[in-house]
């Protein structure tokens, strides 16, 4: 008899050979400048878009909540784990999103899994953008519904698939990221909602990278596209621009009441921790009171895009196949021809004092450098990134 765990080492070996193996790196702090293994680096890999994760007001709120409620919610929200803080936070999210109600989960990933699996089942159809986040794709699988992927942001392809498949199923759910996490582009939401109405479909939009970032009041992509008040299921995270941890669903009162009864990843898990709930609540108040943070973020995103476009000639001269991907968000990506090259560039950037995300298959279809800007980056820091990129050697 062989060792039943031997396959794990073989599987890891395959990952190493393909340059797909990933490992963690311990960072000592948060903000535009970080320390990693004693080296100071400019941070272009954080989801802390508004710079709130290091804000003393969030820390003070979290500490006060721990003093009042303890470190844990101690149980499922339906049993012993519900606190007044949860309710206040859910009201604040509903108010930001202009929906009837909201529900907080322990993470955005769990919010997607639980909501999708509660909305559809084996008699139903899911149509999903091919570049959707892992949590949407795994939620779809968990639901047991028939899943069809449509081409990325291709509404003609979605329409054609609806026309040929919709009739055969009971319910239909359209799934999309609002800001695509590994590209930075936006879902064409108004067209998607028109198709949903025409073919009687529910729509679930993942606002993880848009919450606090897009829209006049920071409500997200739905607000950006002037679709506030439309009937859809909005999911998001408290862990990116809101600088905390947790996920949310916002929608009608009936939807939220249904999820409290049917979403397994909400019912059978401990309620969001008091510290995380309090930090997120404070972050929402800051998002609403300080629109200048969002404006600075927008300015920095525009500057990075423009600087990258200007410097692309230099970069591409060293690395054939480098291409800037279209973006309308603080996520800006340079597609690179293969995994070995992107690793090589990532290493050189680090030597030059830049921390950027190196993303490879199977996370994405093509290897890329993923840069994210924060509201509290300076123009000089963005220029330093571009200089480092143009000096990379082949
Ligand atoms: N959706 C998208 C689009 C994401 O990028 C992420 C996080 N990477 C999630 C959901 C999951 O959110 P959380 O980190 O709160 O689990």
Q: Please, could you describe this protein's structure?
A:
The protein has 14 helices and 13 strands. α2 runs antiparallel to α11 (274-289), α4 runs parallel beside α5 (134-143) and α12 packs parallel to α14 (379-390). It folds into two domains: 56-289, Type I PLP-dependent aspartate aminotransferase-like (Major domain) (Aspartate Aminotransferase, domain 2); 291-390, Aspartate Aminotransferase, domain 1. It is of the alpha/beta class and 394 residues long. The strands form two sheets. It has a seven-stranded mixed β-sheet, with helices on both faces. It has a six-stranded mixed β-sheet with strand order 1-2-12-13-11-10. β7, α8 (221-224) and β8 form a beta-alpha-beta unit. The mean pLDDT is 95. Helices cover 43% and strands 16% of the residues. The longest helix has 28 residues, at 291-318. GO terms for molecular function: 8-amino-7-oxononanoate synthase activity. Residues 40-389 form the Aminotransferase class I/classII large domain. Its cofactor is pyridoxal 5'-phosphate. This is 8-amino-7-ketopelargonate synthase. Pathway: Cofactor biosynthesis; biotin biosynthesis.
């Amino acid at each position: 008899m062989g060792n039943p765990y031997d396959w794990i080492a073989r599987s890891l070996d395959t990952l190493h050979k393909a340059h797909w193996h990933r490992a963690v790196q311990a960072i000592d702090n948060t903000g535009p400048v970080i320390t990693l293994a004693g080296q100071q680096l400019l941070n272009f890999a954080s989801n802390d878009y508004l710079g709130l994760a290091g804000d003393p007001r969030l820390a003070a709120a979290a500490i006060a909540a721990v003093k009042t409620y303890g470190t844990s919610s101690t149980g499922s929200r339906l049993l012993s784990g519900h606190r007044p803080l949860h309710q206040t936070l859910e009201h604040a999210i509903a108010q930001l999103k202009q929906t009837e109600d909201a529900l907080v989960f322990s993470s955005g990933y769990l919010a997607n899994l639980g909501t999708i699996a509660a909305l559809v089942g084996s008699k139903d159809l899911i149509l999903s953008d091919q570049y959707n986040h892992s949590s949407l794709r795994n939620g779809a699988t968990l639901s047991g519904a028939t899943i069809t992927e449509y081409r990325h942001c291709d509404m003609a392809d979605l329409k054609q698939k609806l026309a040929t498949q919709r009739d055969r199923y009971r319910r239909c759910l359209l799934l999309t990221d609002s800001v695509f996490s590994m590209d930075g582009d936006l879902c064409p939401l108004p067209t998607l909602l028109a198709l949903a109405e025409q073919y009687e479909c529910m729509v679930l939009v993942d606002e993880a990278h848009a919450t606090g970032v897009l829209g006049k009041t920071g409500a997200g992509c739905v607000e950006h596209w002037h679709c506030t008040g439309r009937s859809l299921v909005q999911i998001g995270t408290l862990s990116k621009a809101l600088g905390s941890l947790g996920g949310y669903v916002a929608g009608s009162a009936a939807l939220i009441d249904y999820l409290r009864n049917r979403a397994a990843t909400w019912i059978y898990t401990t309620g969001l921790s008091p510290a995380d709930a309090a930090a997120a609540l404070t972050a929402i108040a800051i998002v609403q009171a300080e629109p200048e943070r969002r404006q600075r973020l927008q300015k920095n995103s525009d500057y990075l895009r423009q600087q990258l476009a200007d410097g692309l000639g230099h970069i591409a001269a060293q690395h054939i196949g480098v291409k800037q991907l279209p973006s309308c968000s603080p996520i800006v990506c340079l597609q690179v021809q293969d995994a070995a090259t992107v690793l090589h560039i990532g290493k050189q950037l680090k030597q030059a004092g830049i921390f950027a995300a190196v993303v490879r298959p199977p996370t994405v279809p093509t290897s890329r450098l993923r840069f994210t800007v924060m509201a509290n980056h300076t123009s000089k820091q963005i220029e330093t990134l571009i200089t480092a990129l143009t000096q990379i050697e082949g």
